[in-house]
Amino acid sequence: MAPTIKEIAKLAGVSIATVSRALANDPKVIPSTKSKIDDIARRIKYQPNLVARNFVKGTSNLIGLILPHLYDEFYSDIIKGVEKYAQSHGYYTLVTSSSDEVSLRDSIANFTSGGLSAGFIIMLTSENDEIVEQLRHSHTPLVVISDKSLSREFNSVTINNYEASFKLCKHVFSKKKYASVKYISGPISNIDSQMRRDGFKDACKEFSIPIKKKDLIEGDFTFESGERICKEFFSEEKIPELILTGNDMMALGCIKVINKNKLKLGEEIFIAGIDGIILGQMISPRLTTMKIQTELIGTNAVKMLLEQMKNNSHKHKNSNVVTELLKGNTI
């Protein structure tokens, strides 16, 4: 069991109330008594219950972060950006993932009721009227991470997924003419996925590259879906010369299959992704991709949230994260 205030009180020979006041830095506690209590707390590795403390004080130093998933580097970098900046300003981060509407509504309710959090950051990957309405009625400061569509309603950090995909595809298509092209998207219901796919389709139009429905394959942004779909390509009579994917993780799944089939990347078959995760830059040849500054997304979101909390401002601000082409060697 975790050490308690009761144990500290017993070891220090004082009341539980005195321990509670000492740990809360009450100036009325005698300095020698506070020093003794602090030493015991460190020795027995006591950790305060922040939620309970916030409830008693009527304030909170917790920031909520709601993400659709926690499974890859894209999301872990956002968490890193939020935690690093929040901690440097005296706040703790409580992270949760909600991949469906019910759990998302519950997470929002948890962060907006009972004073659990001082404010929260939420990443929305689909346009859901009920969720947006719930956010509109929130009295808790919040910042939305999303594509451009919600930037007028809330403080937001946006990623121009369409532009990132369009620029990447223009770079790829300007290199050479490809015998056949396949595009693996993320889930169709995901707004980021839709924008990236639209960027690909419009770049194909600009370069007069014919794309049929069968050339657009739906994945789910995971390594496994990239691997599975690429295996299907290799089971067909004609292997695509170029594979473009809606994120880097699916590209890495494809690369596993390509390497297993002993085709030379960047010579016999070509591939590019989007996100710029470190794993794609650690392999050889390095993955060609469009880098999204994911840690900066988290940093900008929490900066905006803390400013909103401090100034109690209702004026909506937007921070757009710039993307960068990483040329790599797979194109």
Q: What report would you give on this structure?
A:
With 331 residues, the chain is an alpha/beta fold. It folds into three domains: 5-48, 434 Repressor (Amino-terminal Domain), CATH 1.10.260; 60-159 and 294-321, 3-Layer(aba) Sandwich (Rossmann fold); 161-292, Response regulator (Rossmann fold), CATH 3.40.50. Helix content is 46%, strand content 17%. Helix 1 (5-12) packs across helix 3 (31-43) and helix 8 (161-175) packs parallel to helix 9 (191-206). The model has no long low-confidence stretch (mean pLDDT 89).
Write the topology of this structure.
Blueprint: H1 5-12, H2 16-23, H3 31-43, H4 50-57, E1 62-67, H5 73-88, E2 92-97, H6 101-112, E3 119-123, H7 129-136, E4 142-146, E5 156-159, H8 161-175, E6 181-185, H9 191-206, E7 216-218, H10 223-235, E8 242-245, H11 248-260, E9 270-275, H12 278-282, E10 288-292, H13 294-311, E11 318-321, E12 323-326
Helix pairs in contact: 1-2, 1-3, 5-13, 8-9, 10-11
Briefly summarize what is shown.
This protein is α/β, with parallel strands linked by helices and 331 residues long. The protein is 46% helix and 17% strand.
According to CATH, the homologous superfamily of the largest domain is: Response regulator
- Shape type: elongated
Number of domains: 3
Question: What fraction of the residues are assigned to beta strands by DSSP?
Answer: 15-25%
Contiguous helical run count: 13
Number of strands: 12
Calculate Rg over CA atoms: 25 Å
CATH architecture of the largest domain: 3-Layer(aba) Sandwich
